[in-house]
Amino acid sequence: MSDLNSLNSKFEILDRKNAEALLGGGQARIDAQHKKGKLTARERIDLLVDEGSFEEIGKFVMHRSKDFGLDKEYYLGDGVVTGYGTVNGRLVYVFSQDFTVFGGSLSETHAEKIVKIMDLAMKNGAPVIGLNDSGGARIQEGVVSLGGYADIFYKNTLASGVVPQLSGIMGPCAGGAVYSPAITDFILMVEDTSYMFVTGPNVVKTVTHETVTSEELGGASTHSTKSGVTHFSCANEVVCIQNIKQLLSYMPQNCEELPPALPYESTGDETREVLNTPISRMTSGR
């Protein structure tokens, strides 16, 4: 009987931890995220992958740092949801940063979770999709968090040309949170709620005495029309995730496979005539 009670108590602990992990930084911060017109990290994954296909990795991971008050704040998952699932039946590896936990900032363990799925993606020949919503390195951890970014950049370079790497910018991202996406294959941004900059407007004002808004410095319109950093500008997060899925449908799983192909059907005699017309005649107008 005592063994049964012990087993039941362990299941209760597991259920409690699962519920705690699903809440991220807490209901109040989730509500604040929704008020800004943004989805949570888990809601984004639910929209991206096929229903019931997502398998999470590192759900109960927590940071190891004790300095600057971090010993009093622990969140299961440590600010990023990582795992694998399918998109239209195709295997993909995903990480989705959780802005409700320390502003999505990257810690040592946060980085280790991302690196792990990138390793698995290269090993199994499947695309990596990153949903970025992070203020950059977790400054309380100092150089350890910066070392985590170095590991991610290294994996980005190893994965380049091996598996597709897609980055969705889903919030205000700064520092390392934009260095990594910038060296992936495709970047998608959300209008009015996502930003990419090395440092924010306050730092720019302090250093150069220039006053600039977040949108002017690194908004979707700036990066899609001026800098060319982003490839797609999306009206909202739902559209952004739909575009990621559509873009993925044009790509092969890895460098060893061919992209998906669809049969071509002629629309009639006019199409056949155009195809049979020499290019010289078409350009000369005769």
What does this structure look like?
The chain is of the alpha/beta class and 286 residues long. The protein has one domain (2-284): 2-enoyl-CoA Hydratase, Chain A, domain 1 (Alpha-Beta Complex). The chain is built from twelve helices and nine strands. The strands form two sheets. The protein has a seven-stranded mixed beta sheet, sandwiched between helices. A two-stranded parallel ribbon has the order 6-8. Helix 4 (108-124) packs parallel to helix 5 (143-159) and helix 5 (143-159) runs parallel beside helix 6.
Q: Which labels suit this protein?
A:
single chain, 286 residues, alpha/beta, 2-enoyl-CoA Hydratase, Chain A, domain 1, seven-stranded mixed β-sheet, two-stranded parallel sheet, 9 strands, disordered C terminus
CATH superfamily caption? 2-enoyl-CoA Hydratase, Chain A, domain 1
**Count of strand segments:** 9
- CATH class wording: Alpha Beta
How many domains comprise the coordinates?
Answer: 1
- Order of SSEs: HHHEEEHEHEEHEEHHHEHHH
User: What's the alpha carbon Rg, rounded to whole Å?
Assistant: 22 Å
- Poorly predicted regions are 280-286
User: If strands are numbered along the chain, what order do they take across the biggest sheet?
Assistant: 1-2-3-4-5-7-9
CATH-defined fold name: 2-enoyl-CoA Hydratase, Chain A, domain 1
Report the sheet-strand fraction.
Answer: 15-25%
